[in-house]
Design a protein that fits this description.
alpha/beta; TIM Barrel; eight-stranded parallel β-barrel; binds 2-phosphoglycolic acid
Length: 247
């Protein structure tokens, strides 16, 4: 099965209107054979959509309820109205900082899908979990517990992001990446049968222009989720181009 590669940027808590030129430059360089997206802060979604042309603009989180008394939170309907087409859920920074559980991540993904958003659902092990030989068990358990009802590659992608590789400049070996993505695919087959083949599994954690080709070329890697190196066109475009070269 040929899965079209998806390269998504995660701007985290970076990005003001002064940075919209980067959005424009990134979208201008978007090749035809790759899907590219930028997940920007909520406040930048509407203006990034205007700047992005055909490129998908996403959010970094969404609340699991459609509306209600949830001060400071944002609903999927609000994101759609702002022009977002996608949202991340379950990023490890939210699992750690906001104590989000697998059940909550699942509910968030389902709320996003109900409203018509595409979803990138993040999973990944800590260094302690990897060092103790539990990485695959932890990650496949996260997949099983956070996979939304009706999971389908048309609207859902997974992102494997080892927590210890995020923002550190460290990455797993290509062998470890392929092994983990294979384990995730096998778990998906168990959970959703043949639909597992259509679902993209992105790698994330210290992806940059120098390592993108090798990481994106690993078996069962269908794209990348990129933090620091997605903030500027000069760093992000070469990663998108590396994905395009692999087809
Ligand atoms: P990084 O972040 O590319 O800066 O390591 C990746 C992420 O957190 O999605």
């Amino acid at each position: 099965m040929m899965r079209r590669k998806l390269v998504a940027g995660n701007w985290k808590m970076h990005g003001l209107k002064a940075d919209l030129g980067e959005v424009r430059a990134i979208s201008a360089a978007m090749p035809d054979n790759v899907d590219a997206a930028l997940c920007v802060p909520f406040t930048l979604i509407a203006s990034a959509v205007e700047a992005a042309g055909d490129m998908l603009i996403g959010a970094q989180d969404v609340h699991e309820a459609d509306k209600g008394a949830h001060t400071g939170c944002i609903s999927a309907g609000m994101l759609i109205e702002a022009g977002a087409g996608l949202t991340l859920v379950g990023h490890s920074e939210r699992r750690a900082d906001q104590h989000e559980t697998d059940a909550q991540v699942k509910a968030k993904a389902e709320a996003a899908h109900r409203a018509g958003l595409m979803v990138i659902l993040c999973v990944g092990e800590t260094l302690e979990e990897r060092d103790s030989g539990r990485a695959e068990a932890v990650v496949t358990a996260q997949v099983a517990a956070s996979l939304p009802a009706g999971a389908h590659g048309m609207w859902l992608a997974l992102a494997y992001e080892p927590v210890w590789a995020i923002g550190t400049g460290r990455t797993p070996t290509e062998g470890d990446v392929a092994a983990m993505h294979g384990a995730i695919r096998a778990k998906l087959r168990e959970l959703i049968g043949g639909e597992a083949e259509s679902m993209r599994i992105l790698y994330g954690g210290s992806v940059n222009a120098a390592n993108a080709s090798a990481l994106l070329g690993c078996a069962d890697v269908d794209g990348a989720l990129v933090g620091g190196a997605s903030l500027t066109a000069d760093k992000f475009v070469p990663i998108i181009e590396a994905a395009a070269a692999l087809g």
